[in-house]
Amino acid sequence: MKYFVNFPYTAESLKNEYRELCKKLHPDTGGNAQDFAEMMNEYEQTARNLNGTKQHADAERARQEAEARRREREEEERREREAEARRAKEREEEERRERERIEKAQEETRAAVRAWAQILERIPATVSGKKRAYSFDDKKALAAYIAATKRNIKAVINHYFPGLDVKVTISGEIWKEKFSIAWEDGPTADELRKTCKELEFFIPSYYTSDPYADYGEYRERKESAPWREAYGGGLGDATDYDTARTLSEEGEEQAANIAADIFTDFDPAKLHKNNEQFKMTLTEWHKFAELCKIDGVSRHFENLIRDYTGNNEGTAYYSSLRRYLRDYVKVSVTKKEKAPEFRPTYGPTLKAIKKALGGNVFAKMQETKRRENDWTPCDFSVLLGDLQGVKLCKPYSYDMETYWSPVYFTSYKTESTRREKFEAVGITMNGASVKAVREDVAAKIREELADIEKQRQQWEQEQTAKASGKAEKRETVSKTTNTKHASKQSTGRFGSQSKI
Q: Is 121 helix (H, G, I), strand (E, B) or coil?
């Protein structure tokens, strides 16, 4: 090389030097043609060499980058395999700990099963451990299972609260799972839960979900499975049992008096007026919440008071406080002997109708749509009068009141079965409405209702006679007591006084 000797070159530096040599060696600028030709040859050769070197360098660089990416990918895959192995090991360890925890909990549950063996009744082995209502092929077996479970739940509660009359509801239809316990007066819902801890064993499921997932799933409570296999439990995906405590007149009066002692503006006479309000201060509410041991729900009134006032005073509806009195105020009500109640003996026609009704009632729809007066319960005699508006209804409770709702929105199979049952006893149904009653059935109903009226009159005469007999007995006992008392007064310390 004579002209291009300033190695190494880049494309830019080579071009710049070429331009300078052109200015110097070009014949038009006073240069020599032969020298210019030699310079051109060297430039072209150097450019070819430089281009080849660049291609080689680019190829080498690409190869190295690909190699680096391959090694990085392999390293990433290796790290992922190691991470997956660690996760699998952690899952395996977690599953092992979970199995051990469940086994330990089941051992404790089995100990509880043995401890309650003399109090509770065993569920037959042929139906134990079932979770779904449709798992029972025999409906009678399902009814027997539910009945036995209810008796066991009542036995657990009566063990801790003797004499407490509770009503247990268990159903397991799809999307209609229900597991509830209702009672009057007695312990509060919180007290019942904390005392009767074994009730948790009857709960079949719990709900779990991934916080990043749209839906979760229901899983069985395996820890308490031995208890349900032995003594039954709720059905379906019930994850808890509902509590519904009501207050008797005496219990409600006690609760209202407690509220009146705390809330200055509270008037017990207005307790059942839903649209009435009374004033309360935050201090009064805190005192009430502390007395009733109310935790998180106390913020309901706290927020109302703080949001709408600046001086820690607010207003509350009597209907809202009534629910708090029902659920949280502890009352002490003396169990009164129930008054005698007339229980008629139904004839065959009324028995058949009663069987077809099941847990439902016949009710007549009123003109008004107000919640307090939606439905009126009626006797079988309603079938003998105007059938306009008479419907088959299901009773339900809301805010300590009982209402009736027509049996709508049932499946075709259920409606057909119901219609067939009523047609068998002479009543034609159109959905939930009573369409017609056969004349001979109506005549038999009249006869049996007349017989029931005779039974009532006889029962009332018997009750009058019993009350009269008790009154005579009390009068006789009173006279005897007075005679003995007079006799004691006529004697001295050492017996009868003798005449001197």
A: coil
Give the chain's residues under pLDDT 70. Answer: 1, 52-60, 126-134, 173-176, 213, 294-313, 335-338, 366-377, 397-402, 470-471, 473-500
pTM: 0.59
Which residue's structure tokens are 């109090």? 119
Which residues have a Cβ under 8 Å from the Cβ of 39 and sit 6 or more positions away? 2, 3, 21, 22, 25
Residue in the block written with tokens 């409600």: 252
Give residues with Cβ within 8 angstroms of 247, minimum separation 6. Answer: 184, 185, 255, 325, 326, 331, 400
CB 169 within 8 A of CB 147: no
What is the sign of the dihedral through the CA atoms of 379, 380, 382 and 388?
positive
The CA distance from 184 to 120, in Å, is 23
Lookup: tokens for 256: 């209202």
Residue 129: name the closest of 204, 199, 179, 200 by CA: 204
Q: Residue 441: name the closest of 382, 355, 383, 359 by CA.
A: 383
What is 401-421 written as a DSSP string? EEEEEE--S--HHHHHHHHHH
Geometric angle at alpha carbon 264, from 259 and 268, rounded to 5°: 45
Q: Using CB atoms within 10 A of its CB, is residue 472 exposed (0-12), middle (13-18) or buried (19+)?
A: exposed
**pLDDT tens track for 207-265:** 888 777 677 788 888 898 899 889 988 887 888 898 888 888 888 888 888 888 888 88
The four Cα atoms 281, 287, 293, 298 give a dihedral, to 10 degrees, of 10
